[in-house]
Sequence to fold (134 residues):
Amino acid sequence: MSSVADKLAKKSSSKTSAKQVRLRLVYVDFWSAVKLSFLTAVAFAIVTIVATFLVFLVLQSTNLIGQVDELLGAVTGGEFQLAAFLNLPQVMAFAAVVAILNLIVITVLGAVVAGIYNLMVKVTGGLLVGFTSN
Fold:
């Protein structure tokens, strides 16, 4: 009788036949690319808003905004106060506007890239992709 280690050694020494398939990507569905780029942009927008909130909290807790405000007050003679412009609602509103603009731009760029790829395939023949099974 053979042990489990002998059986595993026989399995590892035998070569498996790996099948390989080569396919050409000759068309990217326009609406699928738009949907995928929109979902990517939504995730990026959420990350932008959360990161802006966390950075603002760190700046506020370390009192860096107050120190920069004191420095600007010394340079400008007290005419400009940074703390009047940098409060949480205004920072989050700015982050929301940036996130919405990024959402629109990333979605449009995904559609444009899909259209350009579909036009380039007519010249280049497409992207060759290889798949193997082990």
In short: The chain has a mean pLDDT of 87.
